[in-house]
């Protein structure tokens, strides 16, 4: 994969992290809105690897016991890391809508979506980073990512 494509994917992933804070959270997606945006400041990445990092808060997860909530946070953080990998591999589809009436802004909506299949992702680490936050770090070889891009992203509705 060319370096310019990787830079584009990284830029789009960062934009997605920024956009995720703009969305209104529903009950089922409070976890995604309440968790910190994914970053790439963890341990160094192997040459030729793409890294995705996801975070999830334990306390806001559904479950009757602390252990159930921890397991849900682990699953949520892993899914967030997968989403970041998909953003880096396939890019982020950004849609914007603005409405003016007599020169006055009436509505301004911004939405980012990503669709793709992530294969061959390795788990680098999963664990608590604070008393209430789990972090998952996943990694995929750049050659595997290039093969996925060549196959094309599936079209989901």
SSE diagram, text form:
Elements: H1 3-20, H2 30-34, E1 49-57, H3 66-90, E2 93-101, E3 104-113, E4 122-130, E5 133-141, H4 142-151
Antiparallel strand pairs: 1-5, 2-3, 4-5
Characterise the protein shown here:
With 157 residues, the protein is an alpha+beta fold. The chain has one domain (3-151). The chain is 37% helix and 29% strand. It is built from four helices and five strands. The protein has helices at 3-20, 30-34, 66-90, 142-151, and strands at residues 49-57, 93-101, 104-113, 122-130, 133-141. The chain has a three-stranded antiparallel β-sheet. A two-stranded antiparallel sheet has the order 2-3. It starts with a helix and ends in a 6-residue tail after the last helix.
